[in-house]
Amino acid sequence: MTDSTGAGARRSRRGVLGTAATALGLGLLLTAAGAAPAFATTTPPAPAPAPQVEVLAQSLALLADEAAGTEGAGEGVATSATLDPTLGLTFDDQGRTPVSVLFASADALDAAQDAVAGLGEILTVTTSQPTIVVTAAPTAFEQLAALPGVISVSPVRQAVLGHSASATIASTPASSGNTACNPLVVEADAPGALNSAAARERFGVDGTGVKVGIISDSFAVVAHPYRTMAEDIAAGALPGSANPCGYTTDIDIIEDGNPKLPTNTDEGRAMAQLVHGVAPGAELLFATAGANEAAYVDNIRRLVKAGADIIVDDAMFPDEPLYQEGVVGTAAREAYEQGVLYLSAAQNQSSIGQASQGTEPGFVQNQSTGSWTTKVSSFGSCPEIVAAEARAVVQQPELVVDCQNFAREGYNPLLSATMGLPLTPQGTLEGTIKAQWAEPVWGVETVFLIIALNEDGTALVPQNPGAETTTPYATTVFTPDAGLENPVGFQFALVRLHLAGYDPGTPEVRIQFMLDDGAVSSLGDGQGWADGVTIGPTIWGHAAVESVLTVGAASVLTPDTIEDYSGVGPVRYLWEPATGTKSTPVPIADPVTRSKPDVVSVDQSLTTFFPDPAAGDFRFGGTSAATPNAGAVAALGLEYSPAATAEQLRHALVSTATAMPEQPIRNVSHENVTGTGRVEAVNALAALPVPAPAHTPTPTPDAGGDNRLADTGADGAGATGGLIGMAVVIAAGVALVIVGRATARGRRSRQG
Q1: Domain residues for 69?
Q2: Is residue 1 included in any domain, yes or no?
Q3: Same domain membership, residue 150 and residue 77
Q4: Whole-model pTM?
Q5: How confident is the model over 204-221, as pLDDT tens digits?
Q6: Is the dihedral of CA 487, 489, 494, 495 positive or negative?
Q7: Closest CA to 128 of 330, 324, 277
Q8: Does 734 reside within a domain?
Q9: Is 625 helix (H, G, I), strand (E, B) or coil?
């Protein structure tokens, strides 16, 4: 899928009004050296009528206007030369892009499904929440939004994956991987990593009888030039009928990624290779995270129904709630309550070891700079170019707007950040920033936008800002004006929109940089943060749920050092879980602050194809790799102790982890960086309930004579009886294992 339109062409179509507004803003923007800039603003009139964004997302509304030829039509309608509603979206060769249509009820969805099919190609219909994902042309967006029962039409956002393409290449550590059966050296086996080889040998386990479910973007969708799934199986890197070492149970792909959805990488297959390396006897299942949270929930439930004992995931939708459990988190918690151990990647959005200003003027090194949070929101006038851009986004030229104050003293409506931006597949630099605030899903009263400017705050950069009104979430995809120079300096404004029908407040707000392989190398203008500001925490979504085992990452090559992108806590819940359909939010009587991650596992493990090779190796970095390695240790534990509950498995992994050395991070506590430490397989298995021994029948006294068979040691007359006795012993042992497993599964079915 390729972009069908370019930002350059779009700017030329937006005409003179946008350019004039920007020029006016530049003329009014004054900056004094060493002081917060002063801004000239206009005083807008009363709030405008109810906004269109109530149903149709702003970026889609702008695309619809362009397609209809009505962009900027009408006197005074705001336009902008820098808004690019295609940023962050993908288009097929027919100019269509995937959108998610949320209905008020399943009945409304059923009634509208034929109409939706007439407006585009349906990709997914979800059952846990009434949504249809359809790839449609911009000319169809207004018609989709007008269908009876539609609550929102929004772009399909790619789930964030916890993989990193960067790797520290060093000499390969000693490992006990069986390369005769697996082409990959299983470095996680090493004593200094997870010590899983010693656990397999000591406890006589390899994961046999345990089902591990994997959730990621895709498994076997991409035509990789290095190795196919069939070649992986034949080489022993995955189980399947052609596996050369007897692990012949085929992988159960419940639902693979849809090729028409954005950016499949087959990361699920790489995760499966890691599970198979540590627990080669485990049966593997896979399901895609899908196009939206509802699809994610559906596939968690499908994995549970298919018998998964353990689920590992590495996908997180960026708009999953921050201040309450969302629908994906509820599905993960329910899986745990049904007896399934659920592990989730802490994601890779931290910037550990960077510089940030502190409470006093100047910069402090060794900070985690992935986010900025304030508990004390205050607002003032926006720079004119920022106000004009915000009004252009919502197409309301007289809307009242104001901006968050980022200054320690005085007033400064811009947040400074220098960052390394990731490179897109198209070879351009592109970043994403998001805001989430302390209001509940289905109870949003405050609506924000984030506007991006250049390093000195004098001009806007190409961007695609958007906000939601059903959930407290705003995001901007942005790119530098030109060039590939990294790192790049930007300034950001958090704009509060005074929309008709809303009652804007001053909620706690987190701004988070979603840079994947990039990093925020410097945060702030050097003047110091105001009271109530926190820098650093990056974990959100279902990884914040208490029962989910949230996994951070340390390189298998340097296992005592946390990866500089590994997600950090803490997390805070203020409301009861969100529901999939519109409901009244319920506040938590006693707000919860929770330390996350729970444990650390190792990443930078070898795969046969993923990601692109560095120094000749395919090293899979990120919490996406750490999580399946930890899940595989759990599979070894469940084979050893088949009656162990999900709670006991979780406790064993957390309570026996090897404490990691203090990390050089000044603004986040140690437990919110490493949890209890790095997973240690031998200790984890030893902490599980000891399985009941197989019953051994009392031997029959020897009646005399030495009539033993030369090759068995049994006497001639009793040979048949001896074999029967052996069969009884074996059957008894097998029966105990089956009973133990059935007991665990019985608990799950009774709780479901």
Answers
A1: 7-156+351-535
A2: no
A3: yes
A4: 0.84
A5: 999 999 999 999 999 999
A6: negative
A7: 330
A8: yes
A9: helix
